[in-house]
Backbone:
């Protein structure tokens, strides 16, 4: 009897396991596709011939061979060059999906960028003109609106939770590849959190579901029929799919769409810091047990971070209760936080943790104000050579400021780098401006030399430099040359 009971239990377990496996690997995607396909639309974009668009006169940017956007840029600029005052209108196609029965449609920004006319084609052959509600180039998301006539019922694609998507999960892509119309492909989630250097908030879902030109803006569905991503880019050396596609996660796109609907533009949280990755060497120099967080390389004047007391050299390890395990997570988390909200920010400063209360500003307003700020006039001082660093330094003169595009008054400009020095190994180069040594501000070469001498007398093996390079600020740990 006990043997029979055990056998029944074993059979039940096997049946449960089989049912679970069957759920994750459907025998057919047909029922899912039949339900979802009407929610996916084809988008045709027209730009009038002879119109001087926002890219008129621009040359094609140099991008690495085989990069995700190589083929996109090549196709875009080839078509721009063919355009002339007596030529036919420029036409391109993409995909999108309906998110509201009133006529709201999501697609990619690059699908509709520069459009004079946008027309949406539905699964049943109906087509409608669309208006642009709002767009966000930073996440490559755009929101359109159509006015469905009386009697026309739209099928809606619902948002899913992209954070729950795991590597190996089945996904389905529906779109308009190569202008062929509604096409279905299936695959799996190949990777999460991909950074393809297309924008500041890269967090792409990678999939091997076939994605080609024209799929851009279309949905990536999970097996529950929820949108977990917007198909955006492919990695290809030929322009065709090789099984490496990228989708903007739904959890990143959804709040952007909500802001576009409400304001016609985005309103992102703004902290006002320039940050960099904490390497193992930097972590050691900062007294941290392991690399983590985002190192503050600079604090913008009159920013929320500055007002709260956050300083250059702090390492942000937690923001609003969320751990910052790596630097690139911070901009995304800050951007998704409501403007005007006061949040706790935990930083590592000189060997201890401190918490600051920061009231976030609005990123878009800050960018607008910063773009209107005029550079100040540089001033002169006396030159100096710091042999222990392998650097020749100069004050900021008018000539150097013009040569290297320096837009600050104080600091020490690197004019020469000893090729055998640690500074050369770490990538310091002429035009870099040293503005801190071991987290102490320096305004000229003499002060740099004094701080380095003090470090040498304390038998420090290296110094931590804060370097201004163009618009970026970088912390660089440089080993002292032993005399």
Residues:
């Amino acid at each position: 009897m006990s043997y029979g009971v055990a056998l029944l239990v074993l059979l039940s377990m096997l049946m449960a396991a089989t049912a679970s496996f069957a759920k994750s690997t459907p025998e057919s995607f047909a029922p899912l596709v039949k339900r979802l396909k009407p929610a996916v639309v084809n988008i045709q974009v027209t730009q009038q011939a002879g119109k001087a668009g926002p890219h008129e006169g621009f040359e094609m940017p140099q991008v690495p061979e085989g990069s995700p956007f190589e083929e996109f840029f090549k196709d875009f600029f080839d078509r721009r060059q063919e355009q002339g005052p007596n030529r036919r209108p420029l036409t391109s196609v993409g995909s999108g999906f309906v998110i509201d029965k009133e006529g709201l449609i999501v697609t990619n920004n690059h699908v509709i960028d520069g459009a004079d006319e946008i027309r949406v084609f539905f699964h049943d052959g109906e087509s409608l003109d669309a208006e642009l509600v709002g767009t966000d180039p930073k996440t490559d998301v755009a929101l359109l609106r159509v006015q469905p006539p009386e009697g026309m019922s739209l099928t809606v694609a619902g948002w899913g939770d992209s954070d729950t998507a795991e590597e190996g999960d089945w996904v389905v892509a529906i779109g308009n590849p190569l202008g062929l119309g509604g096409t279905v492909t299936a695959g799996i989630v190949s990777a999460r959190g991909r950074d393809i250097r297309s924008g500041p908030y890269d967090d792409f879902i990678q999939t091997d579901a076939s994605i080609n030109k024209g799929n851009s803006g279309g949905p990536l569905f999970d097996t529950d029929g929820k949108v977990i991503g917007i198909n955006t880019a492919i990695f290809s050396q030929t322009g065709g799919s090789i099984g490496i596609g990228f989708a903007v996660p739904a959890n990143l796109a959804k709040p952007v769409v909500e802001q576009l609907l409400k304001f016609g533009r985005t309103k992102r949280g703004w902290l006002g810091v320039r940050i960099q990755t904490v390497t193992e060497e930097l972590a050691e120099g900062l007294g941290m047990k392991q690399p983590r967080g985002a190192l503050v390389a600079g604090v913008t004047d009159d920013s929320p971070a500055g007002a709260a007391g956050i300083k250059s050299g702090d390492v942000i390890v937690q923001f609003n209760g969320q751990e910052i395990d790596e630097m690139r997570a911070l901009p995304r988390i800050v951007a998704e936080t409501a403007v005007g909200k006061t949040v706790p920010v935990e930083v590592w400063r000189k060997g201890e943790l401190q918490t600051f209360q920061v009231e976030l500003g609005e990123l878009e307003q800050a960018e607008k104000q910063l773009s209107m700020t005029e550079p100040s006039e540089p001033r002169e001082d006396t030159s100096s050579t710091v042999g222990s660093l392998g650097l020749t330094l100069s004050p900021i003169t008018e000539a150097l400021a013009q040569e290297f595009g320096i837009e600050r008054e104080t600091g020490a400009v690197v004019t020469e780098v000893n090729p055998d020095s640690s500074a050369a190994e770490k990538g310091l180069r002429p035009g870099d401006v040293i503005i801190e040594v071991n987290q102490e501000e320096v305004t000229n070469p003499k002060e740099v030399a004094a701080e380095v001498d003090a470090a040498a007398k304390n038998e420090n093996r290296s110094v931590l430099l804060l370097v201004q390079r163009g618009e970026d600020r970088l912390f660089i740990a440089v080993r002292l040359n032993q005399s």
